Glucose-6-phosphate 1-dehydrogenase (Kribbella pratensis), 477 residues
Amino acid sequence: MGGIITTHAALLPGERTSAAAGQHTGQRTLVIFGASGDLSSRLLLPGLGSLLAGPRATSVRIIGTGRSPLAPDEWTDRVRSAFESRGEISSAAADTLATTEYVAGDPTDVEHLRALLELAGPAPVLYFSLPPAVTTAIVAKLRDVELPEGTELAFEKPFGTDAESAAALNQLVGSLVPEENVHRVDHFLGRTAVLNLIGLRFANRLFEPVWNAEHIESVEIVYDETLGLEGRAQYYDNAGALVDMIQSHLLLVLALLVMDAPATMDAVEVRSEMARALRSTHLYRGSAIEAGRRARYSAGIADDRVVPSYADEDGVDAERGTETLAEVTVEVDTNRWAGVPFTLRSGKALGVARKEIVVKFKPLRHLPSGLNGARDGETLRIGLNPGELSLSVPALGVDGPYTMGQVFLDATLPSSSVLPYGEVLSGILRGDPLLSVRGDVAERCWEIVEPVLAAWRAGEVPLDEYDAGSNGPGTWK
Ligand SMILES: O=C1O[C@H](COP(=O)(O)O)[C@@H](O)[C@H](O)[C@H]1O
C-alpha cells in the first residue's frame, strides 16, 4: 500500500500539518486527468490562462493525460488557444506553453500513474477533471503508488454522486493525503461577488447588525441561465438542475451568506464556519415534497435561439424525467436565522439570465400616520455575475411630498481579470485550501438535497413544464 507518510492522522478535518498551506512559491506541476475533455478546454485552461496573464501569475508546468492519444502539437495548440481566449499570451503563459506535454494512457494502470508521477517530480497537483466514478477508480489505484510529499489532489464537481459515495471517496482520499491538500473545486467560490459576501457582511457596520431573522423576511439565491445544454447532455441528463447547481454552488453561496464571522481569513476558520452553517441547514419545514419544485423546458426561443424541447435534445433520455429548472427552500436552524426561508433556484433556457441574491428586509412595524404609499421594507440585490449591489430603500416624495416610494442605491463591484476557475486554481497551486470545499461540507451538501432527490425520483412531485425563453412555469408564483 502506498500513500505518503505524514502525521496527519490526529488532525481534525480542515486542520493543517506544519507544512502550512499557502507556502508553495516555486514552480508547480499540474497533472490534469481528463485533459482532452471538454471541461479542461472550456473552463480549467482558460481559468489558468487568466491567472497567468495577471499580476499574480505563477510558474506552472502542465502535464495533460487521458486515454485519447493526442499529438504533442495538438495538445500544445489546445492549451495555447485556451490561453489566447484571455487575450495575448503573457510571458508566464509562454513559459507554461514551452514546457507542457501530454501523456496518453490508461489512468487506472498503476504503471502509467507511476510514470506520470516520475515525470511530474516533487509536490505535484493531480487535478481530476473527470466524472466521479472514473475519478474514484483512479484514486483507488493511487494507493498502490508512492505519492511524493506535498502532493495535492483536486477534484471537479460533482464530488461523488450522493452522500454515501462522497463519504467513501473522502475516506479514500484521506488515506492518501491530509485534508488540507485536498481541493474539491467549486468555481463559485472564486467569483468576486461571492467572495465579497465576506466583505459585505463582516467589514461593514450597516449590514451585519441586521443580518438575522429579526430583520430579514426571506432570501432568494437565483442562478437562472438563458443557456441550454451546450452539448453536455451526457453529463446534464444524469445530473439535472438540482445536482448541477443547487447541491453544489448555491448551497456554498448560502453558507457564506449565513455563517458567523470567522476569527480570521484562514482556511481553517472560514471553512469551519461554512461547515457549521450547513450543518444547521435543513429543508424548509422539513418537507421533501413541499420544499422543492421542478420543471423541464419545452420548445421555445431563448436568447434569440430556437430551442427544441429538452426531451428532444441530442443525447437526452426523455424517460428519465430530468429537471432543467429546480427550486428548493431551506431554513437554517440557528438562533440567528430560525424561520427565514432561503429559496435556491436555478434553471436552463430561461428568458432572463437572473443571477442574484435577493435579501428582503421586513417592513418596519410602525410608520408615523400621515405617511402614504408603499410600506415595503428594503431589498438588497447582490448580482452574482456581474458583481453588482443594489439596495432599494424607502424614500419620501416619490409620488408626492408625503408619499412613500422606493429609490435605489446601486454599486458595481470591481471586476477581476482572473476568472473564477483561475482564482480557485491560484489557491490550489499555492497549496491554500481556502477556496476549496472541505470534505464534510461536500457530504453535507448531498445530505441536504437527498430527500428532495428521492421524492422527485419517486414521482412524488410533479415535473412541471415551461417554454424555453419564458421565466418558468406559469403556475409558479
Ligand atoms: O458548474 C456549472 O456552472 C455553470 C454556471 O456557471 P458560470 O460560471 O458558467 O456562469 C452552469 O452553466 C453549468 O451547468 C454548471 O455545471
Observations:
- The CA atoms of residues 46 and 82 lie 5 Å apart.
- The chain has two domains: 28-156, 189-467.
